[in-house]
Design goal:
Number of domains: 5
Organism: Anabaena minutissima UTEX B 1613
CATH topology of the largest domain: Chloramphenicol Acetyltransferase
Number of helices: 32
Cofactor: pantetheine 4'-phosphate
Strand content: 15-25%
Protein name: PuwH
GO molecular function: catalytic activity; phosphopantetheine binding
Helix content: 25-40%
Radius of gyration: 36 Å
Structural class: alpha/beta
Keywords: Phosphopantetheine, Phosphoprotein
Shape: elongated
Length: about 1100
């Protein structure tokens, strides 16, 4: 139907015409979330004076009668496109309440309850008018006016026009005068103008404008990702001085205040997201200057458009703002473009928002219009309640001062986060105009106070724990204290402190005779045994530094390490010689050469080693594929134990395990944690470390009190302990574990995996601790005691820095990021090591010197970790993963940990890892590796607690897992393939071995082929979707949105489903179940519910002797109460 078609059969229909693009979007979102109150506008103000209520009410009715849009309703059922219908006449709903006799506190309570009730009532969009007024009398001459509208009718520019007319009519009526105002131009003329615009030209512009932008700018947020319409707001107001400065700056550089606001918001989004290409939404007035009388029209003219802003790193502020101004001018001719079409022309897929934040600049705010003088009344305390569908909306109004608010989804953001964000926005605005000589990246986001908190109060620990002794010297002091105490246990054998010291001394004397002295690097290739500890101690006592060469490493890796380190002496065993490459170093075989070595002096040797001397070099994996050797001094290690002893209180009663390879720096913590405090160190045989049941037996047998584990290894231990305790309980036994500390390190911890442990042991004893660390900063950096509360979230909180370390979280320009915003961790302080052996360029890249802008503070050196983190409001640090574990698949930036967390929520998933594989060059795809309960045979029967179902094949479980993720994640985050494993492969260090993950089985992961409709219901749904999408052949598993569906087409489908099946169906149904098969299941369920209602109605009719139709009517009334 064109807008010129005017029906004549109905006496109360004045006009019918289509919706504007903005109206279409608002209608969809209102229908999609009918309970959310979205786009419900509530205007409230206080009226003081001798108000003539009857005249005031009549003034409102006169204004309604003047403007056709205020008499409009909307229809969409059974139509390809929704329409708006204008009534000839409507009566404005009017409510009056007299609360003069109530106490002030009770009055305020009644007002708030009324406002909430009014919002809850909402509007029925197919019934006019979509507005109403209430007058709440609080005193003899004091009233609260509540004017409620649906945003479909009017925009912010229209409200001042309406209220000026209302009070103009009121003033005239109060004087007994008859007022005649010029007839306003109808909103329908704007709709006519819209239909004449060149949509092809708009498409060409927006395609070019958004080319290459593939995913919405991430906002983050410290809560969930799905908003339910729980919106709050926080207001702000700049001082008159800053406002004057902003206006002067704008005039001087020929930009608008709106451009300044958008520029500041773009920088804020860039800093918060870490991206240099951001998109946000902005409202435009939408009132075309070529349309006669548009300035006095009432209606919804505004439109929301994407604003794409690129942040060039070294560009000065002023020319960049002027460029943004030019971009605004270039967008203006296409400001009529429907947002749903712009989204379709972009590269951002359907089902994802084009942007998540909206900027609204009000240059004609309604409260300013109401402050114009009135003869008999005063208007103040103006406020507006509104909700839109974006997680964040910045509203700015320019009056005597620049003020505004941030409206936020409280299900996604907390008030403190938004308050900080608002402060950062003000900081940016202020800095832009007070320091215009800065480049964009230099504009400060955080205040000096916040910066002081981040870099001083939380980060820059100044404690010093330096020691004048080397590691072996501290060990020798312990030998003097407890010579006969057991130092080492291996299998059934043990060595005392004195025995270990003597053997190490004899080896040290031998090594010194071979030229070993401070800074001499000695290779060690020894199997787990007493000899391994003798070798390490002997090298240190000789003054040298050890290079661990794990016999289980591939020969190629060992060859590289020996050549790269250029060792001149190698300590080994005869059984290891075959795996070592041929090279010219002096070899010391601890078995065949020991007869000679044992004749040497048992006394402590004298060496020139000092705390600054090299203690060991451990090779870690390199991004280039070649490992790099990290050089660690004695002092780096000794201060680690001194700085953490107040937390742990290690002593001679502790029993430790040497669980990890001595080529992994966790072993440094295990060895010296025992030997520096007189404790007992149990060397775990290699195959015991790979067998969780055997290792659990060792923990019980040896009475281990301090256990150090990677989270992956501890999860396996939890399963063993659980099954063993259950079996023991059935036998009436009670195995007791002696642990007092369990310390995690080496990889990210998912705290929810600890819930079974805490449920059995509590969270006080043993105490579990999460410690983040890296080899380059000497084992550990942070400390976080864990409690049951931590299991409520999958956030890996790593705590606070060790007292003599500093942790800074910086952006890519080395500026501190605000609380809650991700950045890269940099570590400074006494734990920072020398750097990389024979790699000066790499050392310079990763161990950096940083100065503040004013050169007042120097950080030297800082280690660039490559790890993402953010500060939490309480000063704790949350670990967010490796930068190189952030992947982009088909243009979407994906946090693999988010997918892993979603998979862990499925009850049969024990553990999982998700990686991006590129088995075919250029085709990167997500693959999930799953360890699930009972998936250890060819025909598993796996119980699910989410459904009364069992899986009889891996394929069925994979389908269930895929459906589980589809309910929580966007399509682009659903893994392409799933691989079921008995266990995740681990490296010799107990970390996940990503390289050992197998290729996926394509047969198990084959996507469903075309399946035609099988039932009448499926066929009827297929016919509807085929008709709407104009596609002939659709399978029951094909996704509506992948076939080209979008929000407006979804509304059509749901409307036709309602009509075809005579059921109630919310719009979001098709978003939750976008396939024919899924919709058919829901439709059948609704029909069964209807059958039950019919049966109930018949029974009630018989009992009450009413007709079935009368009972149905009564039931409907009851349900609506």
């Amino acid at each position: 139907m064109t807008i010129s078609e005017q029906p004549t059969k109905s006496k109360n229909v004045a006009a019918i015409y289509p919706l504007s693009p903005m109206q279409q979007g608002m209608l969809f979102h209102t229908l999609y979330s009918p309970e959310s109150g979205i786009y419900f506008e509530q205007f409230i103000c206080t009226i003081s004076g001798n108000l003539n209520v009857a005249v005031f009410k009549q003034a409102w009715q006169q204004v309604v009668e003047r403007h056709p849009v205020l008499k409009t309703l909307f229809v969409w059922e059974n139509r390809k496109k929704p329409l708006q219908i204008v009534r000839h006449q409507v009566t404005l709903p009017w409510t009056e309440c007299d609360w003069r006799l109530l106490a002030p506190s009770e009055q305020q309570k009644q007002v708030e309850e009324f406002l909430v009730s009014d919002r809850t009532q909402g509007f029925k969009l197919d019934q006019a008018p979509l507005m109403r007024c209430a007058l709440l009398r609080l005193g003899e001459n004091t009233y609260e006016l509540v004017a409620s509208f649906h945003h479909l009718l009017v925009d912010g520019w229209s409200l001042p026009i309406l209220f000026q007319e209302v009070f103009t009519f009121y003033e005239a009526g109060n004087l007994g005068e008859r007022l005649s105002l010029p007839t306003p131009r109808p909103y329908q003329e704007y709709i006519t103008w819209l239909q004449r615009q060149d949509i092809a030209a708009a498409e060409n512009f927006w395609r070019q404008n958004l080319q290459g932008f593939t995913a919405p700018t991430p906002l983050g947020g410290n809560r969930g990702v799905h908003h339910q319409g729980n919106f709050l707001d926080i207001t702000f107001e700049l001082s008159s001085q800053i406002t004057d400065t902003l206006q002067s700056f704008a005039q001087q550089h020929r930009v608008t205040l709106s451009t300044l606001v958008q520029g500041a918001w773009a920088i804020l989004l860039s800093r918060y997201s870490g991206e240099l290409d951001v998109v946000f939404g902005a409202t435009v007035s939408g009132r075309p200057p070529t349309l006669a009388g548009v300035e006095s029209m009432v209606g919804l003219f505004i439109n929301t458009l994407p604003v794409r802003v690129q942040i060039p790193e070294d560009t000065a502020i002023v020319p960049w703002l002027q460029y943004l101004q030019t971009q605004q001018i270039e967008r203006e001719p296409y400001s009529y473009s429907p947002l749903v079409d712009i989204h379709g022309w972009s590269e951002v897929p359907r089902g994802m928002s084009l942007f998540e934040s909206l900027v609204v600049f009000e240059n004609y705010p309604v409260d300013a219009a109401l402050q114009e003088p009135l003869a008999s009344l005063e208007i103040d305390h103006v406020r507006v309640f509104e909700i839109n569908n974006y997680p964040l909306t910045l509203v700015v109004a320019a009056q005597q001062t620049l003020s505004g608010k941030i409206i936020y989804d409280s299900d996604r953001f907390d008030a403190d986060t938004v308050t900080r964000m608002m402060g950062h926005f003000q900081n940016l605005l202020t800095a832009i105009v007070t320091e215009p000589e800065l480049s964009i990246t230099q504009v400060p986001l955080i205040s000096n106070t916040e910066k002081q908190q981040l870099i001083s109060a939380w980060s820059a620990n100044k404690a010093q724990y330096s020691s004048n002794y080397c590691l072996h010297q501290l060990f020798e002091q312990q030998v003097e204290k407890t010579p006969d105490a057991v130092a080492l246990v291996f299998g059934e054998q043990s060595l005392t402190y004195s025995e270990l010291n003597v053997r190490a001394n004899q080896l040290a004397h031998h090594l010194q005779s071979l030229g070993v002295k401070p800074e001499t690097l000695v290779g060690v290739c020894v199997e787990r045994s007493f000899e391994m500890m003798v070798a390490l101690l002997g090298i240190l006592k000789a003054g040298g530094a050890y290079l661990p060469l794990d016999p289980d490493y591939p020969a190629e890796r060992l060859e590289f390490m020996l050549a790269d380190a250029q060792v001149s002496v190698l300590v080994t065993q005869s059984q290891c010689l075959d795996i070592l490459p041929i090279f010219s170093a002096n070899k010391v075989c601890l078995d065949t050469d020991w007869q000679v070595i044992s004749t040497l002096s048992p006394e402590n040797p004298v060496s020139q080693a000092i705390p600054e001397s090299l203690a060991y070099v451990i090779y870690t994996s390199g991004s280039t594929g070649k490992p790099k050797g990290v050089m660690v001094n004695h002092g780096n290690v000794t201060r680690l134990f001194a700085a953490t002893q107040d937390w742990f209180n290690f002593d001679a009663s502790d029993v430790w395990t040497l669980f990890h390879s001595y080529a992994f720096d966790f072993s440094v913590w295990e060895m010296w944690g025992a030997l520096l405090y007189g404790g007992r160190l149990v060397i775990v045989p290699f195959w015991v470390s790979r067998d969780p049941e055997a290792f659990y037996d060792l923990l019980l047998r040896e009475g281990v009190t301090v256990l150090n584990q990677t989270p992956s290894a501890f999860r396996q231990l939890i399963w063993v302990e659980s099954s063993r305790r259950d079996a023991e309980a059935q036998r009436g036994g009670d195995e007791k574990i002696a642990l007092r500390w369990v310390i995690f390190g080496g990889e990210a911890l998912d705290p929810t995996s600890l819930l079974p442990w805490f449920e059995r042991h509590g969270d006080a004893y043993p105490q579990l601790v999460n410690m983040y660390g890296i080899t380059e900063t000497t084992v550990h950096v942070t400390f976080r005691p864990l409690t049951m509360t931590d299991t409520e979230s999958r956030r890996s909180v790593i705590g606070v820095p060790i007292p003599d370390l500093q942790v800074y979280i910086l952006d890519e320009h080395l500026q501190p990021v605000p609380v809650g915003v991700r950045g890269e961790m940099y570590v400074g302080g006494a734990g920072v090591t020398r750097g990389y052996l024979n790699r000066p360029e790499l050392t310079q890249q990763r161990f950096i010197r940083l100065e503040t802008r004013d050169n007042t503070v120097t950080y030297d050196p800082l280690y660039k970790t490559g790890d993402l983190a953010r500060y939490l409001p309480d000063g704790n640090i949350e670990y967010l993963g490796r930068i190189d574990h952030q992947v982009k698949v088909r243009g979407f930036r994906i946090e693999l940990g988010e997918i892993e967390a979603a998979l862990n929520q499925h009850p049969v998933v024990q553990e999982n890892v998700v990686i991006a594989r590129e088995d075919t060059p250029g085709n990167q795809r997500l693959v999930a590796y799953i360890v699930a309960d009972a998936v250890k045979s060819e025909s598993p029967q796996i119980p699910s607690t989410t459904k009364e179902t069992t899986w009889t094949s891996p394929q069925l479980l994979i389908n269930e897992l895929r459906q589980h993720l589809e309910g929580q994640l966007p399509d682009y985050m659903i893994p392409w393939a799933f691989v079921l494993l008995d266990s995740l492969p681990l490296t010799t260090n107990g970390k996940l071995d990503r390289r050992a993950l197998p290729s996926p089985d394509l047969d198990q992961n084959r996507h469903t082929s075309f399946v035609p409709p099988q039932t009448e219901t499926e066929q009827a749904i297929a016919d509807i979707i085929s008709s709407v999408l104009e596609i002939a052949k659709i399978g029951i598993h094909d996704n509506f949105f992948e076939l080209g569906g979008h929000s407006l087409l979804a509304t059509q489908v749901v409307s036709r489903l309602r009509q075809t099946f005579t059921i109630e169906l919310p719009v979001q149904t098709i978003f939750q179940s976008p396939t024919i098969a899924g919709l058919a299941e829901i439709v059948i369920g609704k029909q069964l519910e209807q059958v039950d209602d019919d049966a109930l109605a018949q029974i009630l009719a018989e009992v009450n002797q009413l007709s079935s139709q009368e009972v149905k009517l009564q039931l409907n009334k009851d349900e609506s109460i």
